[in-house]
Amino acid sequence: MTGPRERHQPYEELISASLAGDLTADERRRLDSHLDGCQACRATLAAFSDQRRIMGGLRHVAPPRDLGARVRTGIEHGRFASLPWWRRPPVLVAGVGGGLAAVAGALLAIVLLGNPSPPVGEATPTPLATSLASITPSPSASFPSGPTPVPASATPLASPSEPVATPTPAPASPEPDVYLAHTGPFDNRALTVRDGETGEGVAEVDTPPGPPVAAELSPDGQWIAYITRVGDKGTHEVRATRIGEAVASDDPDGPPPIDSPIEVGETITLGESQSNDPFLERLFWASPRGGYLAYTLADVDSGETDVWLFEPSTGEARRLTDTGSAYAGSWIPDGGAGSSRLWVSAASQQPVSYLLELQDDAGGTGEPSDPAEIATATAEGVFQPLLSPNGRFAIYWNGAMDRAGDAWQFASGAQPYLAEHRAESDQAGFTGERPVFSDLTVGREAFTSASITWGPDSDAYAVWDVRWTGTPQSGGGEDPYPDERRVYFGHATDPRRLTRFHAIDRGDIPEASSVVDVKVSPTGEHLVITAARPVGGTLEAPSADLLLIERNTGTEEDQVFEIRSADDGFWWGPAAFDGE
Amino acid sequence: MALSGPAAWKSSTVSRPAASDHEAEFARLFEEYSAPIYNYVLRMVADADRAADITQDTFIKAYRKLDTVTEHRSTRSWLYRIATNTAIDDMRRRRMVTPMGDDQPAFANRPDHRPGPEAEVMAATLDERVQRALLTLRPNHRQCLLLSDLDDMSAQQIGEVMGLSYAAVRTLLCRARGEMRRALAAEGFAR
Question: Measured between alpha carbons, how far is residue A449 from residues A169, A237, A465, A478 in Å?
């Protein structure tokens, strides 16, 4: 049965459109005919007309007198006005007139002459092939070009008898699709997105408050989301920059591309959060389309954590949860038709994860809620499940949590587990759990956190920044284990899982540097690592190397290539892959 | 109504013709649109200082991208789109995407030094109430309504600004009017 509201609704749209003359002749006839016999719609027409008259009569306010000068100054200095308060100069430059305008004109002339200068303090990017330098002596400075060897430890996923119907695809490139660059003088750094192959700029971002420490490309390649530190405040900002246009799928039956009101090259800030917690520094794009970005923000005052969603289609972000203890987990790839499914975890003494289903046509609406009340599935003892890109495997945390100050953290018996992930339409969950580290005894001494990432092949994964309470289980005379300076690299199909022997070579990372970010390349055998160098003083900006490591086993050393070196004092990385 | 004069752009003198063209075109845009865009942004964020910053950034971005404007997209829609995105970014940065009901219209409280009879004072009061009602709207509803009723844009033009289809704009605008109707009623406006 059609209710009164539904009966009038189509005519209300016509009434609304009629005010600006946006009706066709046929629509005008239909509306007039309806209005003749509908008192309610006549009242709506009168109300909407009044409203338009009131709006049109709003007082017109003159802009500030110095607006023109401020724009000119901003152009000359390449600086925007709407900076966060902590980055604003103490005195707002205003009233600077024509003298500097000539400088701007001169700069403009240089640009128009086709001889653009690189940003101040930054070297012109050089082609990757010539910028590489080997840290470990190697016979060649170029990337390996032959087929990627199948890891000896990996169990083939396909049956040996399975017919091979397609030609062997070209070997995947180990190079990242893009990486971030934080360059320039220490007090005026610029953030740019660089093409992973050429090093050329893809997009320029407003000067961020600090270096980027995490980055993820959307599956459709339109967006890069990233996290930047905010000075010494102990907080970080989550941002997203649109770096590509929506491109229709080659598949005529495929879903349409996701367009956005945000223009290519534009950056939006998605929120500020307390920092220094690996569980917060995670960005989850929904796959395969990239319709949502899920992330966690910890309130800078209270420390309460909630999950937020950014929707490129609307260009808006909204809070998904309201419990103050929720953390984002992975999306299930290719969720049900018209919906997307997201794992959300609740921190508590015994953590639990909830599967939430979002209707894709909801248009970004919905009030924040308690995930426990709207979950379609629940996984007890599971915290922040990270699904492999194909959704087959998951790595999640289990252990007892406790609240320390503002934040929840694992207090005892905690470690990451590898499991199979099931996601049928009517149920979802985890089976076959086993500890990721197979040679560690977890009890009173245990993990408190670690950073984890999957490779695009859904088999390779890496664990780094491991934080362990108590004494490392190294044994006499050996390196500490687990070692927070090492990266552990394994494969889900390797029955050994991770052991101390799965750490990359100690010499892969420059002495005294710390690993900030790790990405596994599509080859499944290479890692792209952002390694921060120690900061020498307050006037020295943070710097980081972006390294490509080809993992070798046995007695053969890893091969290390510099994608960009921090010898120039700049911060290179993190890198990102689009998953293809 | 475009206000010129105090905020007018002063075109610089450069010797090369290409630069002159660029400067002249930008000066024309600033002259024509700085005041309307400032007012649009002012109604979006309800803060004069922030509106000035956002307008400033809008024109800096426009200056940088002026050469990329294509013929199929109107310059006006393009400028408003930059302004809209910059305002959204600013609001999001300040965590006032939604709800916005507790955000006070700061600009309305600034002293108005122009000579004004009682009618002017009453108009300011009316202005405050409308602004309060606007601030209760979702940002995309507010944008849509302002572009339509303050800047007199068609659904087609609003679609260009907001990146929405013609049909989507009509639906959004109707919802915005319904929401604004309730908000105005809460402010004591009849109907």
Answer: 38, 21, 8, 23
Nearest Cα to A216, choosing from A279, A297, A294, A159? Answer: A294
- Determine contact: B119 vs chain A, CB below 8 A: no
ipTM: 0.78
Distance, in Å, from the CA atom of A291 to the CA atom of A286, rounded to the nearest integer, reads 6
**Cα within 13 Å of Cα(A576), Cβ side:** 28
Q: What is the pLDDT of residues B43-99, one digit of tens each?
A: 999 999 999 999 999 999 888 878 777 654 578 988 998 898 888 767 755 543 332
3-state secondary structure of A266: coil
Phi, psi of B22 (to 5 degrees): -60, -45
DSSP letter string, A99-150: HHHHHHHHHHHHHHTT-PPPPTT-PPP--HHHH--BSS--S-SSPP-SPPPP
Looking at residue B107, the DSSP 8-state letter turns out to be G
For the domain made up of A178-576, give the CATH fold.
Answer: Methylamine Dehydrogenase; Chain H (2.130.10)
Q: Locate tokens 């209707």: which residue?
A: A359
Domain boundaries, chain A: 4-127, 178-576
Which tokens in the block code for residue A524?
A: 């499944």
Region of poorest pLDDT, from A186-200, A449-463, A542-556: A186-200
Q: What whole-number distance in Å separates Cα of residue A175 and Cα of residue B173?
A: 46
Instruction: Give which of A112, A157, A60 is closest to A420, Cα–Cα.
Output: A157
pLDDT at A156 over 50: no
Answer whether A410's CB lies under 8 Å from A328's CB: no
Can you tell me the distance from the alpha carbon of A270 to that of A262, in angstroms, rounded to the nearest whole number?
13
Angle, in degrees to the nearest 10, between helices A25-36 and A4-18 = 130
Output the six-digit token pair for A412: 């005892």
Q: pLDDT tens-digit profile of A42-74?
A: 999 999 999 998 888 888 899 998 899 889 888
DSSP code for A369: B
| CB contact B59 to A (< 8 Å) | yes
Mark yes or no for CB contact B97/A318 under 8 Å.
Answer: yes
Provide the CA B185 distance to its chain's centre, in angstroms.
24
B150-189 residues touching A, CB cutoff 8 A: 150, 152-156, 162-164, 170-171, 173-174, 177-178, 180-181, 184, 189
